Amino acid sequence: MERLKELLGYIKEMDILDILDIALVWLMLYLVYKFIRERRATKLAFGVILLFALRFVSDFFNLIVMEFLLQNVLQVGLIALVVVFQPELRSALEKVGGEPLRSIKSLTDSKAVAEYNDVIANICEAVCGMGLDRTGALVVIGRHTDLSSYVKSGTELNANVKSFLLKNIFFDKAPMHDGAVIIRNTRVLAAGCFLPLSTNPDIVKELGTRHRAAIGLSEETDALVIVVSEETGIVSVARDGKLTRNLDYGKLQKILNEEMVTRSESVRKHPVAAFIQRVKRRYRNEQEPEEGEDEV
């Protein structure tokens, strides 16, 4: 009872900075938990927690030799964790450090909106046409994360986004049809680009290399990646490591409009509100995937 009164006394004495401090700690713990869960490192996390528990027990009972060993193991182990998760940590920091106001053109005038709508229409027309013809395609739409390393892996074009250009690039006898096309803002930056393959073991076996490449890039960056299956003609979009499949022209246009125009405008006007909406959307996707979306 006395401890409860003491706790209530602490709560009454809290000010806004204390509340902010607690909220930031909980946010940090949530991000660490989310990072571990997405990388399927639950067993590794359990092992680290067990080592810390043993360290506490050895300190409590004054087990000198055990304490010495665990102290050195933990020091080396933390460095080893950074080395093991170097790619994932780099990807997470790149997403956190994204600069939306620099990477997205200003949408304050109707001309800019019209340009984006024209780009979306050309992408949808090309992709859906290739779906009907069962022509395999991989189209990357860059957003905040820098994709220059992937652009350099292909042939730089710097061309306008046109439906006929995308269809010509992915024609099965064209020299660059096996790689990916990378688009940023209203320009085709490069074609024939190589993308990282996802190592997620939960990806369904029927999905091939193109889909693994799309999911892999969406895991490492915030880019949207459109895939057209050569075998079935199914159009899919990978974002945040998840794949939304069986898209028609209308569904694809809606996704691209939300991600390229609506979200960019909301970030420009209300960055804090946009961040909250992004967190809500990701939480909703985790709890209940969208129609046609595969958990991978």
Proper CATH architecture of the largest domain: 3-Layer(aba) Sandwich
Our Rg estimate from Cα atoms comes to 24 Å
How is the biggest beta sheet arranged? 8 strands, mixed
Outline type: elongated
Here the CATH topology of the largest domain equals YojJ-like (1
Text of the CATH class of the largest domain: Alpha Beta
Helix fraction, binned, reads: 55-70%
Tell me the number of strands.
Answer: 8
**Structure annotation, total helices:** 12
Distance linking N and C termini: 49 Å
- What spatial order of strands do you see in the largest sheet? 2-4-3-1-5-6-7-8
Quick tags:
296 residues; YojJ-like (1; 12 helices; elongated
List the helices and strands and how they pair.
Layout: H1 2-13, H2 16-38, H3 42-60, H4 64-84, H5 86-96, H6 100-103, H7 110-133, E1 137-142, H8 148-152, E2 155-160, H9 163-169, E3 180-184, E4 187-193, H10 209-220, E5 224-228, E6 235-239, E7 242-244, H11 249-269, H12 271-287, E8 293-294
Parallel strand pairs: 1-3
Antiparallel strand pairs: 1-5, 2-4, 3-4, 5-6, 6-7, 7-8
Helix pairs in contact: 3-4, 7-9, 7-11, 11-12
What can you tell me about this protein's structure?
There is one protein chain. The chain is α+β, with helices and mostly antiparallel strands and 296 residues long. The chain has two domains: 2-96, no CATH class; 102-294, 3-Layer(aba) Sandwich (YojJ-like (1), CATH 3.40.1700.10. 59% of the residues lie in helices and 13% in strands. The protein has helices spanning 2-13, 16-38, 42-60, 64-84, 86-96, 100-103, 110-133, 148-152, 163-169, 209-220, 249-269, 271-287, and strands at residues 137-142, 155-160, 180-184, 187-193, 224-228, 235-239, 242-244, 293-294. An eight-stranded mixed β-sheet has the order 2-4-3-1-5-6-7-8, sandwiched between helices. The chain starts with a helix and ends with a strand. Mean pLDDT is 79; it is low at 98-108 and 264-274.
